[in-house]
Amino acid sequence: MLVPLLLLAAGGCTLQPLYAGGAAGPVAASLSGIEVAPIQGKAGWLVANALRDRLGAMGGSGAGAARYRLNVVLDDQIIGLGARADDAVSRERRTLRARFQLIEAGKGTVVLDATAGSDAGIDVVGSEYATIAAESTALERLSDTVAEQIVGRLALYARRTQAGAAGTPAP
Predict the structure, then answer these.
(1) What span, in angstroms and rounded, lies between the C-alpha atoms of 72 and 52?
(2) Is-above-0.90 flag for pTM?
């Protein structure tokens, strides 16, 4: 008895795929018009490349005048958590946080100001090389995660902007 009611309620739902239309869709077209400003440091290089890869996959050529510029400021920290009996750190937490602003190129207005972030746990082992390698691998994973979060937020903004421009209520 409850199942038919749920099916009726779900039928009125207006969920639509975010990337409807693929590379030719309105969201992908908006995302392809974003230029990623340089980001400082190794983490910045990793995040900027991940962003360019994802935005380029939306059909952006990288040439020509971009409609938007994406500015990203990163905060990368490693904090020791666990301690052994000899007071040596046994566990670390690497945190990568990003504050990003989407700026309309023609006007210089900030149209989106948001944050993204992620963290990873790292075991500190007897080998310093292995610990450094684990920290570097964690940074690579965190950079991908943060870039994915940023592109997701940009896609939601593009979707809302497209819906507002079409006169339909934003989802």
Answers:
(1) 13
(2) no
